[in-house]
Hints:
This protein is an alpha+beta fold.
Amino acid sequence: xxxxxxxxxxxxxxxxxxxxxxxxxxxxxxxxxxxxxxxxxxxxxxxxxxxxxxxxxxxxxxxxxxxxxxxxxxxxxxxxxxxxxxxxxxxxxxxxxxxxxxxxxxxxxxxxxxxxxxxxxxxxxxxxxxxxxxxxxxxxxxxxxxxxxxxxxxxxxxxxxxxxxxxxxxxxxxxxxxxxxxxxxxxxxxxxxxxxxxxxxxxxxxxxxxxxxxxxxxxxxxxxxxxxxxxxxxxxxxxxxxxxxxxxxxxxxxxxxxxxxxxxxxxxxxxxxxxxxxxxxxxxxxxxxxxxxxxxxxxxxxxxxxxxxxxxxxxxxxxxxxxxxxxxxxxxxxxxxxxxxxxxxxxxxxxxxxxxxxxxxxxxxxxxxxxxxxxxxxxxxxxxxxxxxxxxxxxxxxxxxxxxxxxxxxxxxxxxxxxxxxxxxxxxxxxxxxxxxxxxxxxxxxxxxxxxxxxxxxxxxxxxxxxxxxxxxxxxxxxxxxxxxxxxxxxxxxxxxxxxxxxxxxxxxxxxxxxxxxxxxxxxxxxxxxxxxxxxxxxxxxxxxxxxx
Length: 549
């Protein structure tokens, strides 16, 4: 791909290039990963080190009780890892209705925070699988940068400090939260030093005894005991039984402006990555590249395709063991061509789901000069997640259980041992050269439902319009909401915004520096000659950093 290197958007960022790259949302994490590569580790080692560091420097987004997903190019082929947690065995709709009552529709109520929003944490088990299969340095070495940061402390970054303070009113009374995250009876202020000795203790423990200590040993016993004493359902058996799954990837092809065919890869459900692929497949039925890049018609078609995708995602995506349809049916080209016909080029539409034929988050990417690449994401879901923190170990637990439905008719209905609908999705791009898939880009974005939308918008800018990666990151974005209304960034072209409004889109311009329109990291492979290295672009909507050499 020969990019247009002009950047038409206001920015202070330029692409960075290197043979080894670690790109994260915090400079300390990027440095931690690059340090591991300099010590002889590979890209997967670096990703684990960076992920551990991010649990320390961005606890508002992820922690020891997170989930994770990863897509790995091992130098020859792609691998997809689903390390999202499962519900405690005790969970079902009756469990919640007896405890919390029912709503106006007769469905069980459930809490958004607290122990009854916590599924079994999957992130550390995911690290264990990645390290077992691809790691080159001892696990203990990979955790040393995070341990040092946690013990010495670090100065609070502006974005992290803002999100931290915003979470205090809702979470301060959750078990263990104030002890861990209100060291002075409040949130740390910008530039203030924060130390996380409890998390350092956990990292030291698993560096010595292995990650199964978290699921079967002393740490697991503490988690289960704390759940029991605070009304939670999670048991030692729930923790000990948990294992991640190698699930491969699902993909959608796109014919790019350079005449070549690229494939965008996502993790299959229970995540929403299939939404980006559905929208991309729908758009293959239009000549998008013939339309002005930032014009009304190009943006309208993308928005409508994304709305069609979400209509199906919210209806069908769940733990794959309970889905009514399989991903291949949802991605069938004939089905997507029929869905494309529903788009009115002159009017916004509120779409319903179709009928396929039966049959708070951090993202990072790392590559090395041997050709390995990893797209990695981990999250506590809503900011600090459940708000629950296990004393003495610094284990802040996600609230992914809130992603379940309480409707017995839903494929996503809560059940013990089941994975909930998940928002976090890593992505990967390959290029087809004959019968060979060539790795092209490891990428991802943060921000709940914005993630598949960010994947779609940035990839189309690069492949259909030849925008260079940093320009594609800097470009103003739109975001389809659950009610199909539309948020647009304040710097979007005024004529485009007016044109979208004229087509019937319900619009709101957002001028909030902390609004997450899909901040992320993008690492593009320059050529087949790996000595040429990679281009790294970070999104200015977060403090994204790329460390390279």
